[in-house]
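Discrete fold record:
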Amino acid sequence: MSRKIGILGGTGPEGSGLAYRWARAGEEIVIGSRDTQRAAETAAQLCARIGGAANIAGADNATAAAQCEVVVLTVPFAGHAALLKQLKSVWKPGTVVIDTTVPLAAAVGGAATRMLGVWQGSAAEQARELLPEGVSVASAFQNLGAELLSGDEDVDCDILVCSDDARAKQITSELAELIPGARAINGGKLENARIVESLTALLVGINIRYKVHGAGIRFTGLPSNR
């Protein structure tokens, strides 16, 4: 079932990669950004790449959040709390927010491989605290690299989906499996997002050591219906 998906921070590599994959699968996408013109340019580029069937628009973050049933956070952790506080009054009841944020920091001159402490436990739990009642939160897509998303090949990665809300978990899982090669895995409660987010730091290090860009995670021994 097609739904309107807002991607906040959608002009960045992760956000535009998810937009590309979902638009190819027939979803309606709104690219959100602090810069409306940049959002419109990214939307136009993606539409041109996909072709006539693509349904992608650009807007500021507040407009994208207000008009979409599903909203995906793909912003850097440094701006995560500030953005959610800014948008506090725009959310519609029933909105599902999917948080892809990872609280990572880089050493001077190095890659972002150091996890930052989050008082709430994880970026996703911080989002839940800052979002109003009636908005559901799921955590997913932290371990699927932007470079893989921006390509046309199938990905080789399981997507851990954590949420305390069954509907949010179901919608997020459906979106994960629209990405060719991806498999949604029920990661349990939202508090498990702190574990999933930390795996990203491990994967960044593995990519560096093996000089690759697409190291992912696969779980074995699961039944087909998971």
